[in-house]
Batch of 3 targets.
Target 1
Amino acid sequence: MSAALPTLRIGTRASALALWQANHVAARLREQPGAPEVQLVHIATAGDVQSEVPLWQVDGRAFFTREIDRALLQGTVDVAVHSLKDLSTQIESGLVLAATLARADPRDALVSRGAATLRELPPSARIGTSSLRRRAFLARARPDAVLLELRGNVPTRLERLRRGDYDAIVLASAGLARLGLDAQVSEHLDAERFPPAVAQGVIGVCGRAGDAATLRWLSALDDREARLATSAERALLRRLEGGCQVPLGALAGVHGGTLTLHASVCARDGARELSARGEAAAVPDEAAALGERVAEELLAAGARELIAEQREACGVEEP
């Protein structure tokens, strides 16, 4: 009689969306023949604790991932599940990005009172978002809008909209769909005009580099197209040295045998936007090179100076 496999402990934040993602990974693991039992372990992160502070005013990065990854390194958990857009492009030494799950809708979504689209919102409409990137592209599309800070989990943000703190808010389409809230969407924002965050819509699963027994189960969850697209996007972000403090959007996709990438950097006030695009063969060796090449085009066009300007102190307006 064979010995029972050890339980895989999955580290996750405790928000409704994070738990959906962790449970989704757990379900995918359980589908595999002979898979071990799984257990969810809730871990609070700096981003959860500092829930009232705008992310671009907080020093450092990995606000929503650091504590979970440290628990993974220390052996408190065996698997870390993240929204890949939250994961630093420089993964902690000793960890590997073992799986990128198939991408959900990468676009941003506008949720408004009265189901108004962005164009239909009244003059000086109050729009809430926690993202510097979203603020910048909103300012470019609707320079009259009053852009207000918005933090909290998805249900909290929707409740603040309902009680009248805002005329509209912007959230990730994937998060709303995963929570069964896609009926709330007033408009999916066009990915060309409103490029999403790097890796938006993709769940990333990390494991310890030497933990072959666990990695064998995680690698089976990896989606080829999501891996290629996010490899290009994350290489772009890494080259630009961006983070929450940089209004950068990018989206890659696989079309037949071709991998395409479009990226834009926008001034916080929306006054200036730099864009670049490129394509390469849809193979792993070419994905990161494509991201770096598109980043170099942006840098040559003046992205370094634009990013430096945006990294200066950013004041925010509270509703």
Note: Residues 102 and 226 are 6 Å apart (CA to CA).
Target 2
Amino acid sequence: MNFCTANDRDAGKRLDHYLLEKLPQYSRSRLQGWIKDARVLVNGAAAKSSQILRGGEHIEVSPADLPPLTAEPEDLPIEILYEDPSVIAINKPADLVVHAGAGNRSGTLVNRLVHHFNALSQVGGDLRPGIVHRLDKGTSGVMLVARDDAAHRALAAQFSSRSVEKIYLALVHGRMRAEEGRLTSPIARDPSRRLRMTTRLATGRPALTQYRVLLRFEKFTYLEVRIGTGRTHQIRVHLSSIGHPVAGDRLYGAPPAERVFLHAHRISFTSPSTNGRVTVEAPLPPDLGQWLTSLTV
């Protein structure tokens, strides 16, 4: 149970907005659900999300556990780029969610994986079998999946030690001046917009993004991007922070498009089963290739 007392500065705020500030680890919809279920009491009484605080209210929150999620098998297509006894590399299409969560209980990559493969690692739990790393929903490209727990831990250690090489292809707005660059701003959750990350705070997790210009167009620049860390939205927020948001990335300031132009093109790692170095490439999807050919140089 969480207890808090509204002060004079909180006067005029809606109850749900106030709770979102005090309990940022929970989504607004989840907090509103608890208010509706009378799991939030204001001065000992049930309240509404829209209740306006005056300051001085004693607020009690009794969080409710979410029902457990498990990955159910679904017979949906999956493109395999590479496999050996320890690891599978798949080509994730854009707009495919990696694993189930609030609002996404079916149709995910994991639902497909558990249908196509008899056994996957369980280190990530019932919700994320085999998942060692992830790609954003709108990002396409190559992604690794562990067949067993030993492989999962070995791959996770490689990601942690930064011995996995990850190369992306990105189209960004504007003409970049330098032929190549290195971005090292720390990345943190944006306190004012929970879905975004930011480089504008003094605190944040270290991040490394390197880019090289492949092609220049009249209003865009096509880049090869290497990341030395795996922060949430890392490429997107780093490139946006220097005034070159990824094309189609509305969350970070780009005009809307049919999809975000960000593709995980290549990954290199050491196979836990063979101990040999493996490089897997996912070709640029046809829709992104057509986008490039439509641009004016």
Note: The longest strand covers residues 165-173.
Target 3
Amino acid sequence: MPGMFVLIALLVAPGIGIAQVDDAPSLAGVIDIHAHVAPETAMLNFKRAYDAIEAAQIARIYGMRGLVLKEHNTETASWAYLTSQVVPGVEVFGGIVLNKAVGGINPVAVESMALTRGRLGRVVYMPTMDAEVRLPRGSPRAVAVSRNGQLLPEVLEVLKVIAKYDLALSTGHVSAEEALMVVRAAKDAGVKKMYVQHPNHGGIVMSMAQMKQAVGLGAFIEIVLSGEGFTGGTPRAINHDNPVMDYGPQKLADMRELGPANIIISTDLGQPGRVNYAQAFQMGMAVLAKSGFSQAEIDMMTKQNPARLLGLK
């Protein structure tokens, strides 16, 4: 979207990539609920630019309120506890992704995460990289959440644990239809905090009607600052000349139609060669302001709604 982006000159410091930016939006109160961090596992072909401590340092330096640490193959509640001891002044949270490495749809793993010292584990993600819909049929790594249009019993057990500990639910990378099934069952189980993970990004495509159904059931819709932009729902190639990547018109249109009260903006960043979490928010918030969103609306999507999801005041 040429002309919609604010060009920012970056002066990158070794290790954590600090930018000197004039007139950038204040990040006080901003929470990134989707911050990828190291130590990553070589089981997956993903590299991370920052470890959990460096990510928290970035957030503190830029004045952010907090981060949720995400890693596809392990829980991060323990990382959040240790990081919070090393980097005070920023709120750090973790979660657990129900991929194969933690036993898939595993209620015991979820409860263990919830009870980790510090109680900083706040988010439970349905399968992501191991979601059945993402893998070849019959893959031994696939983690199913449904069969014949019905959620599996173990998914319902996980939802009970989420409700018991008042955790937040992410729909992960399951199909749009399964995401709606999970959100509906979560509401029935008493889950009060949930969001649909980037339903217009990364190969996960929900129609507007489906997103409105999820909102009607009490879920937030996540819009991420990284990855593919969309024009009329069609993925565009990543623009490597833009450090935030294409923040497509479709995402802006989705935010308008769904309403800022129902949106959480996150980064989905932490990959080498890209801006850090805070820089993405600075650039993305500038785009939103230029696109006509009010400061109150931007604050709702980047500060208030993430805080509500995590049970913060």
Note: The longest strand covers residues 91-97.
